[in-house]
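Subject: Protein record for review, amino acid sequence with backbone structure tokens
Concerning: The relation between a protein's sequence and the shape of its backbone.
How to read it: Take the token row as a discrete description of the fold.
Enclosed: The protein record, placed directly beneath this head.
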Amino acid sequence: MPEHLNHKRRRLTINGIVQGVGFRPFIYSLARDIGLVGSVYNTSDGVKVDIQGNSQQLRQFESRLRPEAPPLSTIISVEIEEIPVLDEADFTIVASHDNASVSTLISPDVALCDDCKAELFDDNNRRYRYPFINCTNCGPRYTIIENIPYDRPFTSMKHFPLCEVCHAEYQDPQDRRFHAQPNACPDCGPQVWLTDQKGRKIKSPDPISKTIALLVEGKILAIKGLGGFHLAVDASNTDAVSQLRLAKGRDEKPLALMVRDMNTAHELVKLNQDETNTLLSIQAPIVLCTSISNDKISPNVAPGNDRLGIMLPYTPLHHMLLSGKLDTLVMTSANFSEEPICIDNDEALERLSGLADYFLLHNRDIYLRSDDSVVMEMAGKLRPIRRSRGYAPRPIFMKKKGPSILAVGGELKNVVGLSKDEKVFLSQHIGDLENLEAFEFFKMTIEHIQRIFEIQPELIVHDLHPEYLSTKWAKDQSLPLLGVQHHHAHLAACMAENDLEEPVIGIIMDGTGYGMDGTIWGGEFLVGDASGFERKAHFEPMPLPGGEAAIRSPWRIGLSYLHQVFGADLPNIPALKDSDIQPIIQMLNANINSPMTSSCGRLFDAVAALSGGRQEIRYEAQAAIEFMQAAGNRLGSDYSEFDFQLSEGGQTISITNVMHDLVQKIQAGKDLEAISQWFHYSLVKTFTSISVELSRETGIKQLVLSGGVFQNTLLFEGLQTELNKVGFDVFTHSQVPTNDGGIALGQVIIGQKFLSF
């Protein structure tokens, strides 16, 4: 009897990030090593593997599958079924199959691997100094995908037919570039060139070396990268950095740096092991680290800020730019403030001609823009501030399947979410929907994610704010709608990523969120879950004189708080002596253009300004950031607890006591450091006291922290420690940002709960 008749045959359907990451050659090698026959192929459902052998061989294959899988792969599920035995003699890789249902995952774009980097600088290698070198373990993924399955005809590499040598690599299962869809070489792949502001080519045998020379001269270069363009200057050249700020209209906001290697990073910032590992990771995000005083970079890179945003080169082009005279570049997104980054050559030349002196371009199309991700360590864990390149579109996994929901996020730091089964796909960072370009990017991203994952949402979830462009767009669609309160979405997002289902206490602190009463919320204590919430306590609503103008001028907010507490008998505050306060007082007295807000972010602005801190801001939360940094990462030993008394229907948290104590400290000559330490500790003690009261009332010991204010490391870490001391299980964000970049996740979960009723 033929041996194969004693064999069994199984079909494994493997779902996860298993396409474009060297998974099929891994399966091929593993099966042949064990002596199995069969085949492996891509489908829109994932990777399917037909394996045939004896029982011991099959068990060995299944036991080795997960621990030996390629480093870029992620196996989410493996479904196994018995199928008829065939008369086969070998194991093969076959062409992709296309199915109607799409459930496979797409890898994010990942940083250049060590093997490719070695080849890049090996003058005996045929890809020596080729800026598009990649393999199955690295390179572009999400940003070049037009459709799935993830095969070359469905990517922007379809315009570059493989040469004979590259084709042989692509077809060889034993080669590192087997079915590496972006595979290319100087003979058949994309090319770079250098132009001036008008798009005229600069004659040079080596455009990258010429680019380095121009950067050394102090020029501003627009450089096309992986997910869009950067604006680059020599970070040590103060004149160049200043010119970049002037051109971009970015007076003081810190600029991101790309450094040659870890040795250079150690010269600029303090690094712990987690920060080091994250810089070296395949995601290669910007990591916000504590800076070290030195003269290596211009002080104009991050004026008045004790942190630097550092990233390592993640494309071969970046590695080449930093391989010579330069070891540190400012690499900031190529756009004017609040606009999305450029991705197209013609678009860049049109939009950036007033920003950049020269343009380093290439002809590999970017289908979907993707900003650099940003992370920061808080309470011993790296947490996302902006989740984009390297992370998107990797989904957040829920414990159980749910209906398909489209969540359109908020207005600022917009991220959209779409769910399918147990997965919530969150887009890359889209940005602030305040201009036409960002809004078009928002719409394109929704269409792209729906298409590549074949998601047909049953419901659109939007923020309650009627003037948000995301809300208006949602209401123009033909699908059923659900409006969700902003801070409820924050709470639900934090619950979702921590697998919490029972009601929790939520401390939700941010700058702006449209409330159920039509006022601006932002200092909230909620009790609830995805199905609903109660607003149990909140900061006393205060007028915001001039609305957005007050946010840009925190002294106005400080004056409003004083006016609310002291009335006409305003105390003498040195920080306000040069401000024209009378028009603002008249505005407050007449209640003209002074919307009410309970925002904790605005309270920070007020206290910072009154204490002698920032009076006018140049970027979001600047006053609060500098106020936090003034504390020197230390909480005070004294505090003033806010007045609060919980009652049915919720209770305001009065600022009266704290304002009186603040004025006393200012008039006693306390410096900004001491006041910051005192104020942060006052918030920690008050938040803890309110939480204890709510726990006594409800019996709940699980508590979540969310909202942009909790990017304040001093407040966040101090509060988490204090809450742990009194017996709370404290949960916060580690997969999505605590700021508005995370609310789409909460909107999805609330929408799913709504449809399940």
Remarks:
- The first strand starts at residue 8 and ends at 17.
- The two ends are 59 Å apart (CA to CA).
- The mean pLDDT is 94.
- The domain at 520-527+536-731 is CATH 3.30.420.40 (Nucleotidyltransferase; domain 5).
